[in-house]
Write a structure and sequence with these properties.
479 residues, Pnp Oxidase, Chain A, 2 domains, ten-stranded antiparallel sheet, five-stranded mixed sheet, 13 helices, 25% strand, binds flavin mononucleotide
Amino acid sequence: MSAFRDLRAYLDRLVRELGEGEVRTIEGANWDLEIGCITEMMAEKEGPALLFDNIVGYPKGYRVLSNFMGTAARTAIAFGLPPDLPKVEIVRAYKDRSKQLKLIPPVEIATGPVMENVLEGDAVDLTRFPAPRWHEHDGGRYIGTADMVITRDPDTGWVNVGTHRGCIQSKDRLSLWLLGDRHNRMIASKYWSRGEPCPIAVVFGCDPVLWTAAPSPTPPGVSEYDVAGALRGEPVEVIRAPETGLPIPAYAEIVVEGEMPPIEEESAMEGPFGEWPGYYTHTGPETVVRVKRIMHRNNPILMGAPPMIPTTTPGYQAVPLAAAVATWEHLENAGVPNIRGVWAFARNLMIVVSLEQRYEGQAMQALLAATGRRRIGGMERYFVVVDEDIDPSDLNQVLWAMCTRTDPAESIQILRTRTTDIDPRLSPQKRAAKDFSMGIMLIDACKPYGWKDEYARSNRFDDAYRAELRERWKSKLAL
Ligand SMILES: Cc1cc2nc3c(=O)[nH]c(=O)nc-3n(C[C@H](O)[C@H](O)[C@H](O)COP(=O)(O)O)c2cc1C
């Protein structure tokens, strides 16, 4: 378990465990596109975490952090795992841990560093923070990309947390894109149906484990704060926000609180924004937060997780924990034996399962079970199953299996299901007709079970021999 009290403790740990170069401070970049483009280019190289300071037009100390979990080693450290653990083993460790998780509710403390600066009334000004314009055609400055949006169910008291993109509309207006099925939207609707605005708080910077819990798909009634406590092994320390009474992380970097009126009463044009499939999407009237108070630490760090094309390792988490773990668990629950690993490529658009075949039809069973995990609103396209000698996190190995162990006439099935609004492949006609139907492909890239033992032998050295040579040659060669 790993409990970082705050984002700063995590950054310190990265430097301590992985060296000075792991968190690179960059001075003098412009919030307008430069930070976004540098972030993207460094993420493509799986480079260091980037801490931008002395941002053009802003005083020193008003910082932006990006690519914070952009390598497997940084992701492992965030979750208290050894940094050299193989990628699939990080998924396995997280899955095993998730099974034993006991929810730990937050503890309330009197105050915390987030109250070091409190801005109210005319002092409220979101543009005090160097929120980047991340992509060239973004419709504004997105301060909220790695945020936590907090509301409380007025009937049950359940505190919900989600991640929603947030754009600065003016000094005291923040727009949020809350899709219809999201819990925060459902909770807000309850207030709106009573003719009241929804009390709301938004966090822009906290420890990475707490933030990982924020967008996790927990069932209604379960607070992501409790999930974060379970993942950290210690409760999150919260304070009661002065205006809304909502629990906010005491060690957060920046928090705003206010109210969200019904969209019919007040809205703002939101978007477009360069989204995770790699295209600009969605423009339209969306909800706004009337910001009543800003709280922030001295020298605040605005945390950013700008979307990039999905084949770039996301700078905020190099290991696709949520999708891989959920699929792995789903396969186990469906009774698929001998799973060796699960991976998700291209932000979950391609799911790969590695297993040791034990019976005829097992590969197809795994494929069907994996597709069954797909949620409404999911966009997963390709499902692939490979043998146990293939590392599912290594795209080259997966490609090799797909190219040499399939007969496309036999090994591939196409099903028809539903995609999501954000899918660029929906034609304008289908979109207008609200027809979200889309194909998915199931690829059995395993050696055919009936004659797998007669399959041509691979000339690739096996992992055991590679490990032996790595050890023997380590002083002379970085193998
Ligand atoms: C980086 C990131 C950005 C996201 N942006 C949005 C968004 O703009 N709008 C949205 O409705 N969901 C967005 N999501 C998905 C929600 O955070 C996610 O579905 C979450 O589970 C919703 O919270 P809920 O479980 O409380 O409904 C995003 C997720 C991540 C990881």
